[in-house]
Amino acid sequence: MPSPFLSYLRVYEPLRAFDGASGAAVRAGLARGAVRPDRAGRRERELCLRAMLRGRLLPGDAGAGAGTPVDVLVLGGEGGEPLVCPLDTRPRAAAAVLSFLAEEGPVLRSAGLVVPEPAARRRAERAVAELGDSAAHVVTAAWTVPLPWFALVDPEERQVRLDAQRRVWWRVPIAKALGRAGHAERVVRGAVGDEGPAEVLAETRGWLERFDRTSIVELDYGGLVDLLDDAALRADDSAGEVQRALRLLRAGDLDEAAECYARLREFWGGVALRQRDG
């Protein structure tokens, strides 16, 4: 079974950034063994499906709370401090439940929940609160990559792997990602206004500001690689197109920037259309 058709923006923080109960859970996750990035989506789907099959709303509901196991992704660690990305599966699943309750009608809410709605809301709110003052280390998008995310990365630093562990990803120091997000936000606001991409960039920048300044940011195509063949992945230049669009906007060439956007919309729109085919 393929991975979920999600793209990911992740933050890997130094181990010293985790303390208290959250730090204990992260260290326990390290002791159990890190999850491979290409398997992270399937691992989270498995945890959520197991919970549903047992009549539970969220992973960890049997013993919900601070003791809920945390899966982690890891960079480095050989001869130095590891950089760790907790998957935060339980609170992220809870946030998705609250979004579902806020956006869907009563019939779908009733059909989609394994517990009564008031109980679901209470449990989800408690699970989100388990993050405390921390932010989730992972954000996702379904069936596409939000174009503003590409403003954070250097097109030349893209990593492509086309073997059994098929992946496309970038990694960038968080200080660079923050600087690029701020610059792109200013350019976009000045050219096309405060909504849309500028808003996404502002939200992304605000999220990144909550992490240690020695962290690493990873943009990962995740399960979207299963929707594209090897030739399409090799030829994909989405990050380059976004950077070209930003340069054109900065120069005041709105028409050429719009053409870059149209090419990106055609490419990622074609990927998203696979949702209907599936």
Automatic annotation (TrEMBL):
Record domain DUF8083: where: 5-274
InterPro entries the UniProt entry points to: DUF8083
Name this protein carries in UniProt: DUF8083 domain-containing protein
Native source species: Pseudonocardia yuanmonensis
